[in-house]
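Q: How would the structure tokens look for this protein?
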Amino acid sequence: MITSFIIAGSIYLTILIYLAQRSRVKEKTTSNYLMGGGNLGLVLGLFTTAATIFSAFTVIGMPDFFRTHGIGAWIFLAVADAMMVYVLIRVGVVVRRKARSSDYKGMAGLLMNAYGYKFAGIVAFIGVVTFLIPYISVQIRGVSIFLNAAFPDALPVWGWGTLIVAIMIIYSEVGGLRAIMYNDTLQGIILFIVIWVIGWNCMREFGSVSAMFAKVEATKAALLSVPGPNGLFTTQFFIISAISIVLLPFTQPQISTRVIIMKSTSALRKMAIGLGIFATLVILPTMFMGMYGAVLYPDSTVQEFIGHVLLYDQAPAIAALGLIGLIAAAISTSDSQIFALGTELRSLLTTDDKKALFITRIFIFVVGIVALLFSILSSEHLVLLARTSFAGTALLGPLILVGILSKKKPGLLIPICTLVALVVFVLSNAGVLPERYGPIEIEICLFAFLLLATGIELLRLNAQKEVS
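A: Here is the predicted structure in token form.
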């Protein structure tokens, strides 16, 4: 496998250097460095968006999620992803049109202008920084665990993480967003091929899909029903997950930036449909991998299970390709998110462009270091950590959608309520506040609170309209 890995790694590194050089940004401005020129085509838009959503946690986290919690994970993602595509088509067009009609530099800056208060933009910035850093750490930790399993004597988990962060910061610095999007396209293709080859091999171990499910039922029948063996897939879980995923294109800046810089409305709609197809196809083989692990490695640790299903039980060439695919996935997704956080900071700065970009680049480096530290300390439950990140940024949904879709400037009610919700959610996850009140989980309570605030604000804006 080492020989295959060196060959595949050399080829990948050569392509990466070529793409970085081709897209190298000589004169760094907000438009060409942070926005990639602002004219994103269908194919590049589809793969770069898909790659920022489905990455290292998909290959490593989702198989273990299926293995641990069962087939309900398919509902968790498949139905919610379909809803996300519909909302992206219906609402994304409006968001793109309004953002492109202004001097768009980032969602935080757009909200600052939409509300007329810098406070609104600061709340959005605090929210994405707080919840994207854990999500970035998911990518770093996931692939670091995998590499440590492949080469246990080479580097510890934190050593692999440090190497990954160094590569992605250098790559981002050289080529900006355009280089990241080229790498995303390469990563998306590699990820799709790798995950299907390994998933198919896992399914073939049983002979057929029906035989696989029969074996799983004999091993642990609870894996084939909800709420699953650990009782995770409750109604509230699905509601929270659906809301979080549906709002991803608007609440996570690495995705919203790509939505806004699509070159046309037609390209955006086609990209959304393609994204839904990609999501369905890329999640299916992770279910095969999870069921494979549920039968053969039910009591193994995450690292042991991943090592077997992706490395030791595969042919050397496939295992080497899997390594390259995961490294590419971790790098492309993490640098997209780190870069997006820099974009959000830039949108709040009112200084000249050159100075603002210098501050942004320093901030990107700092975020990379913080994400590395967080990945070293984070949990092995990668999907649940990612879901917490999704839910946290989803709390920004009302703030963003009201600000963008409203024809009049909203007041401070929603920004203040959003900040309160973010603080409560953080304290709840830290164990300071309860995770549920009675039978109701904290996320449902917070979404209901923000929905009430949104209703009050819309009534106030409507009353103003009637008076005028």
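The CA atoms of residues 115 and 411 lie 7 Å apart.

The mean pLDDT is 85.

Upvote if useful.
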